[in-house]
């Protein structure tokens, strides 16, 4: 299996990284940022992961992303596959979904899975 690189990011901190697949979670999935109790947390915190994981449609998107990665890997090329997952700030939805995708790929398909959270450390974006 070729290497898969997954990068979570926040559109509010800069442009999406170059990728074969880019998921934009800004408008279609519940944002933990709106809950003051979760705002300062990140996807490294279980309450955020639980809220994102319980969002309708998230696991369908995760499964579809894993299937798309598998389709790229089935092709004749051996270049690394790049997946970018974005939300507004890069601290909640995108980081959690990137974690979920990476976890499924590691558990089911082996190979080198590199996961980077580009903006997880950045301050909360005021909205």
TrEMBL record:
<dbReference type="InterPro" id="IPR053931">
    <property type="entry name" value="RapZ_C"/>
</dbReference>
<dbReference type="Pfam" id="PF22740">
    <property type="entry name" value="PapZ_C"/>
</dbReference>
<feature type="domain" description="RapZ C-terminal">
    <location>
        <begin position="3"/>
        <end position="121"/>
    </location>
</feature>
<dbReference type="InterPro" id="IPR005337">
    <property type="entry name" value="RapZ-like"/>
</dbReference>
<protein>
    <submittedName>
        <fullName>RNase adapter RapZ</fullName>
    </submittedName>
</protein>
């Amino acid at each position: 299996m070729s290497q898969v690189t997954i990068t979570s990011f926040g559109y509010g901190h800069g442009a999406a990284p170059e990728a074969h697949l880019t998921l934009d979670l800004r408008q279609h999935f519940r944002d933990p940022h709106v809950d003051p109790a979760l705002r300062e947390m990140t996807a490294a915190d279980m309450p955020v992961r639980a809220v994102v994981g319980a969002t309708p449609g998230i696991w369908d998107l995760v499964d579809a992303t894993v299937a798309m990665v598998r389709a790229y890997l089935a092709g004749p090329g051996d270049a690394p596959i790049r997946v970018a997952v974005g939300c507004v700030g890069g601290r909640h939805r995108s980081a959690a979904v990137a974690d979920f995708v990476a976890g499924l790929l590691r558990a089911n398909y082996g190979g080198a899975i590199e996961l980077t959270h580009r903006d997880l450390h950045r301050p909360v974006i005021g909205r």
